[in-house]
């Protein structure tokens, strides 16, 4: 586990700084390949730090907040505020490089759940918008500092809610405060012999509160399930008081309201504590790479694992395009020799399947691996080297984006999920939409895709886009994203694990119906009558048709 | 699979008829044992058929409903109405034997989801209460014909929604209409090679719509999960129009609204179709009985199976009291010889654990059984005979109640669930509450308990009560049930799989908070503004504190 100390440093996540950009460099061979493959030219845009307006937080509100959290924890300096301005989407990063940006009027840092509750009540009293802020890794505008109809907005920074509250080893439940960053959660749980097993790509920065608020899903979801499956209970600060849920592992005492809080993205309340199912740290792990010939063969393999008891913890299938990018960019591969090796074994369109197993001991792991491989045929094994290469780089994606952007690349991801019988149609529709939108005379986009989460009834699709940046980069990506969302609508979900935020809100009604939007709005009105909580996200104010 | 044809017969479920009472007889040895063990005396109460009042359905409403469903499907005769008056709780059965009973003013039988939608709209127009009625197996008052503030109430009988709509073999999803009774669902799916794997004790009569509306859990939940885990999508008729949910196997597009519909008990809308995950019919099955010495050893075994990969489909642990009842009443056991056999192996307080395995073939089943038994020690095996005896009688409980009631026994069940670390405290508290409430000079109650659903973080507790009936049987059970509910509150959930209905509604606020009740009420107001849907159930009208 990489220890991540920088999440408490308000500057560390300001990705527009040279320090952020130095996190990962683009290897020369990669830059060369991108130029050839996509038409990338050596045009650089200077980084211009965005303007930070004066804080609009009224003096009496500031004093009231300071009385709750302490004067030094109501921060209004430009750098701190800029560090809590939006998340880590491509458009967010563009904004940090010189675009228009929504900056909170102050960053407020309560020490504990009680203080969060009082901050919210104070914001209701002073009619100030509240944007809950955990790791700030949203890629859908979920932590944009929007003020809605309020005169001021604060970022409610949960970094000080960093405690492991309790561990119940009999029930295997741990209660964590919402601001605990995933690596810290793993470190604190490891002292008790436990793991959450939740490893999304945002792992190094994201918080357990954020995971719950957004229905996160980690790379080991085949073994550990989605984050919502781990949530045994929640403690939520709302404008109408504290709300606690979760007395039993399962219940028929009405609808599952925990599942209404999980995924509510700070619009109904601020999650301050999460009770989570934990598991013993596995004693044995193994990662392997297998290559299938073509997408259809790979999908059939992943479906068999999901439906017939694959017993893996990690199942990740790259499509031919992503496999090509991986072989080419990730380094370490003798690409020509590898292709020759695969072709000699009948593989003309390689699709890489990474599998990971975990066991309580080596025998358990071996039994799981046997159960997996019994379901598969027609693959070429690349052994543990390919698996370990994936594992080594699995959190690196976000860090490489700055280097790509420095080189003039538009780089972004988007994701969806659907049932197996529509999976190919969905992939084709999204690919076509993105390619049609982004291809121009001089630009040949790469649209790569993988399945990283599979279920008995379907799977996710995760797309990565690389294309030379246009002169109007915001419009370039906005148009492409809109085209992709329209392609998804009706075929799959608008988000499998990135949540709704600002970006997906326009498509929500198509997915959950006008009635669904009205139901969310009714819950919002009940819990947040004056609308201070995270305005402009998730519930965007469709009024009942009555 | 027992074919159940009588669910379409309106008289078949009128349990007050002699035919109902003849379903199962009480063996002589059981009656003798009950007399000795509980103080039961041979006092019989004559069965008095309850009065059925004149239908209060206004003529214009009747005509409007007949125009939608056909004249012959608006039924107002006394027997049909009585057959749709409440569910199958002990108090319901008492009422059918001569108590006060709420009778619907008509039974309306729409043919399909569209007709259900139009019936609801018509009931809104005529301000008539609607009680959705599936198998009528509620034991918490969920289908009581309450009219709330309306002048009339109809039972919306879903029996004609009996179709398998579609099967998607690639995604392993089947769409079933809500009124399909579980045995019919299994029969129709078996033609495609699939099973739901959902076998609650209500199996012979209950419907898939009812399973979804109440968050049902079946006896094979260790292998197949709770019913809500099978629900991929729902189609719901509401006063504000149809609502469809479920485009993907998992989603982060906001809170999971499907989980708000599942468990909504007809208060938000009437579920008309359910898309369900199905699985191939297992080729191999095996059931065994194991005996542990004492509750603590049995619970430790069940917890190990739930937390460390037991790989069973059925896990059911009886406490010493239930084990004693089972050994004594279920017949076929040479009870004295069995006790001697067990005592010779060190078992002084036997607890029976029934385990069931399913495999795609015999080798798979054997591997699962090995994985299970590796986690267990310190038990005495009773082999497959004990497992098969349980399997044979697993749906018989409800049928035996009439015979027990004929013999003067108060017989009822209740259930809860909690996390492992509180399980013993919860069992002790409920046992004490029931024993204290029901024990008198002449009456020695039996309170038996089992775990039939276990999870990584906790388990359910299911209590069966047998006690000689008092002169005021309604008060006798009402007091005992209240004592049990008060004992549960704060320690566990008020219902693990029986739902809320009328009976548990008073305890809901303690479990989900006043805010939780307000949230349910806000959703109810949004979807059912005039409150026609299932009044008095689940959402009992706590008004917001604002």
UniProtKB/TrEMBL annotation, chains A, B:
One BP term from GO: lipid biosynthetic process
PANTHER family reported in the protein's UniProt record: ALKYLDIHYDROXYACETONEPHOSPHATE SYNTHASE, PEROXISOMAL
Keywords: FAD, Flavoprotein, Oxidoreductase
Listed GO MF terms: alkylglycerone-phosphate synthase activity; FAD binding; oxidoreductase activity
Residues with site note (Important for enzyme activity): 316
SUPFAM superfamilies given in the database record: FAD-binding/transporter-associated domain-like, FAD-linked oxidases, C-terminal domain
Family: Belongs to the FAD-binding oxidoreductase/transferase type 4 family.
Binding site for substrate: 401
Domain FAD-binding PCMH-type: 100-281
Cofactor(s) required for function per UniProt: FAD
Protein name: Alkyldihydroxyacetonephosphate synthase
Binding site for FAD: 132-138, 214-217, 265-271
Record keyword Hydrolase present: no
